[in-house]
C-alpha cells in the first residue's frame, strides 16, 4: 500500500513501511547507492522513529517498478521546538538519493506538499542532493564540519599518525589504570548509557531515551557495537559506533567528569581506531562537529581535517524559523540551568524533551 502524490511533473509516493518487502527494497536501494549513509537505512530511520514515538516515512519515485529516487524521513513533534520533517531524524547524514530517470523537482515539490499536509512548518535535509536556494529553501554551509581519514596499517603506525601533542596524551592514557570492553550486551549498554547521560547533562543537553540507542544497536546487529573504558571497574567513557562500507563511525559517545583527568576519552578513541582496523575497516569517520566548538578542535588535534557540510532548510510560508541549535544565544540560559540539574532529574526529564529535537 502506498500514498500517492499526483504531480504535473511526475509522481512520488510514500512507501508502506509496515510491509517487510518494501522495507527490504529500500535497504537494497541504499546498499547499492554510492552516496548512501547508514542514516538512509530503514534500520536507522524506522528504528529511531519507533523508539522516540515519532513517525518514519520514505518518499520515493519509481520507473517501471524500480526505485529511482529515495528520501528517508522522520516526522518529529516537539512541544518545545515544533514539528519537523528531517532526513534523517537524529542523524548527521541523510538526504535525497537519486538514480537514472529521477525527477528531482517533482520530488522536492512532493516533499513540500507532504510537510504542508502534516502541518510541519520545517524540513531539514542533512546531506544528499539538495535543492537550489530560493525563497522557500535556505542552505547553510560551514556551520558544521565532518572529520574522516584513513586508518593506519598497524597499531604503532596508528599512534605515530597522531600529532605530537595529542600523541603524548594518548601515551599517558595507555599507561593509566584503564580497561577496555567491547560488546553489545546489557552490561555494555547500561554502562554506555550511564556515561552518556552524565556527559549530556554536563553539556547542558537533554539526553536521548535509552530506547533510541538500544533500537539502533538491535537494528544494526553486527554493524554496531559499544566500546567502554573502565577505571577500577567503573565506566568513565563509552561510545556506540556504526560500521558502514569500511568506515567506523563513532556516533553516541561521552565521558564522566573523571574522564578528562584520566584521559579516558583519548584512550577510547585510540582503542576504537585499533578495533576498527581489526574489524577490517579502512576509514575512521570521526563525525560532525559544530565549527569552532570544543569537539571541532579536539578532532583537529588528532590530525583530522575539517570538511564543511551543507544542509538545506525549508520553512513554510509565514512560519518562523525553527530554533533548536544548542549554541544559540536564545537557548544559552536553558543550557546553563540544565547543567545544574541533579543527574537523576536530568535523566528523567531529558528523554521527554530530546525525543522531539530530531
UniProtKB/TrEMBL annotation:
Pfam family, any one: Acetyltransf_6
InterPro entries (alphabetical): Acyl_CoA_acyltransferase, BioF2-like_GNAT_dom, PEP-CTERM_FemAB-rel, PG_Glycine_Bridge_Synth
Occurrences of domain BioF2-like acetyltransferase (ranges): 167-300
Top-rank lineage group of the source organism: Bacteria
Alphabetized NCBIfam families for the sequence: pepcterm_femAB
PANTHER family from the UniProt entry: LIPID II:GLYCINE GLYCYLTRANSFERASE
Protein name: FemAB
The species this protein was found in: Novosphingobium lindaniclasticum LE124
Amino acid at each position: 500500500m502506498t500514498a500517492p502524490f499526483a504531480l504535473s511533473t511526475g509522481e512520488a509516493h510514500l512507501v508502506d513501511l509496515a510491509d517487510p518487502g518494501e522495507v527490504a527494497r529500500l535497504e537494497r536501494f541504499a546498499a547499492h547507492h554510492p552516496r548512501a549513509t547508514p542514516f538512509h537505512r530503514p534500520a536507522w530511520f524506522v528504528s529511531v522513529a519507533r523508539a522516540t514515538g515519532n513517525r518514519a516515512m520514505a518518499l520515493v519515485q519509481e520507473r517501471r517498478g524500480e526505485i529511482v529516487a529515495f528520501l528517508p524521513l522522520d516526522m518529529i513533534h516537539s512541544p518545545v521546538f515544533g514539528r519537523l520533517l528531517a532526513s534523517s531524524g537524529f542523524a548527521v547524514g541523510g538526504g535525497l538519493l537519486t538514480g537514472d530517470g529521477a525527477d528531482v523537482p517533482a520530488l522536492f515539490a512532493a516533499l513540500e506538499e507532504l510537510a504542508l499536509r502534516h502541518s510541519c512548518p520545517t524540513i531539514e535535509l542533512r546531506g544528499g542532493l539538495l535543492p537550489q536556494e530560493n525563497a522557500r529553501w535556505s542552505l547553510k554551509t560551514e556551520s558544521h564540519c565532518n572529520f574522516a581519514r584513513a586508518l593506519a596499517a598497524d597499531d604503532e603506525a596508528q599512534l605515530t599518525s597522531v600529532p605530537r601533542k595529542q600523541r603524548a596524551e594518548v601515551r599517558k592514557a595507555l599507561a593509566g589504570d584503564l580497561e577496555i570492553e567491547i560488546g553489545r550486551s546489557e552490561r555494555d549498554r547500561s554502562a554506555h548509557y550511564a556515561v552518556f547521560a552524565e556527559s549530556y547533562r554536563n553539556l547542558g543537553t537533554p539526553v536521548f531515551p535509552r530506547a533510541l540507542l538500544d533500537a539502533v544497536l538491535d537494528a544494526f546487529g553486527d554493524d554496531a557495537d559499544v566500546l567502554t573504558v573502565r577505571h577500577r571497574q567503573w565506566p568513565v567513557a563509552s561510545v556506540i559506533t556504526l560500521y558502514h562500507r569500511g568506515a567506523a563511525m563513532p556516533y553516541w559517545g561521552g565521558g564522566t567528569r573523571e574522564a578528562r583527568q584520566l584521559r579516558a576519552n583519548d584512550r577510547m578513541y585510540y582503542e576504537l581506531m585499533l578495533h576498527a582496523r581489526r574489524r577490517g575497516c579502512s576509514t575512521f569517520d570521526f563525525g560532525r562537529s559544530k565549527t569552532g566548538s570544543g569537539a571541532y578542535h579536539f578532532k583537529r588535534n588528532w590530525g583530522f581535517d575539517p570538511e564543511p557540510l551543507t544542509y538545506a532548510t525549508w520553512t513554510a510560508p509565514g512560519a518562523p524559523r525553527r530554533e533548536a541549535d544548542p549554541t544559540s544565544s536564545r537557548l544559552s540560559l536553558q543550557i546553563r540551568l540544565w547543567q545544574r540539574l541533579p543527574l537523576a532529574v536530568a535523566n528523567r526529564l531529558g528523554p521527554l524533551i530530546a525525543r522531539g529535537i530530531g
